[in-house]
């Protein structure tokens, strides 16, 4: 079955804040040492809860890679790996239990794993890049995300490029803020115009 996720490109890059941000498809098992390091990093443990022994972490990612409703990517900055993102079809994800998802809705999860990249203002350009990647390469009219409601920085980032909070949802591991980002609003947002200069 050819899914929306399986048709996504393996690579994507944009220029922002005088750097080249990109994503590349996760390589298994080559990327496992990097992912193990990030999942055990102090700033990642509480949010992702994947600080597992390597055999268990490998089993987790094998299952994730076999799931055709999502694609897994490594985030890069100037060709250096700094993070990880999951891009998924919302209607075929557990998130569809919490809102009425349309077949073309897409979502993403993201972490900046490399400690040296934390606190450098990368969250906003990476979020912008992943959003642009989705809208450029899928029929999605809406992107959905559900970050932990206690993490305030997401509100600051989301507001600048048309991610609007809908409501709080009670998930097993967190109380999440459900955000929607619509295609037209994204390309007209001040964040998008500030980064890329002209509307798509």
Automatic annotation (TrEMBL):
Pathway in which the depicted protein is active: Siderophore biosynthesis
Coiled coil: none
Occurrences of domain Acyltransferase MbtK/IucB-like conserved (ranges): 24-71
PANTHER family: LYSINE N-ACYLTRANSFERASE C17G9.06C-RELATED
Name of the protein described by the UniProt record: Rhizobactin siderophore biosynthesis protein RhbD
């Amino acid at each position: 079955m050819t899914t929306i996720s399986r048709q996504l490109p393996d690579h994507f890059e944009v220029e922002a804040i005088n750097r080249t941000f990109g994503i590349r498809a996760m390589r298994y098992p080559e990327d496992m040492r990097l992912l193990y390091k990030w999942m055990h990093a102090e700033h990642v443990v509480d949010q992702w809860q994947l600080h597992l022994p390597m055999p268990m972490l490998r089993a987790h990612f094998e299952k994730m890679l076999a799931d055709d409703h999502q694609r897994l990517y490594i985030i890069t900055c100037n060709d250096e790996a700094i993070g990880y993102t999951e891009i998924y079809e919302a209607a075929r994800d557990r998130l569809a239990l919490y809102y009425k998802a349309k077949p073309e809705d897409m979502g993403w999860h993201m972490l900046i794993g490399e400690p040296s990249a934390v606190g450098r203002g990368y969250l906003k350009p990476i979020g912008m890049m992943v959003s642009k990647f989705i809208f450029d390469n899928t029929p999605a009219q809406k992107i959905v995300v559900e970050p932990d409601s206690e993490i305030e920085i997401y509100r600051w980032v989301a507001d600048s490029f048309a991610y609007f909070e809908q409501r709080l949802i009670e998930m097993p591991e967190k109380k999440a803020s459900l955000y929607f980002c619509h295609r037209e609003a994204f390309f007209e947002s001040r964040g998008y115009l500030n980064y890329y200069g002209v509307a798509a």
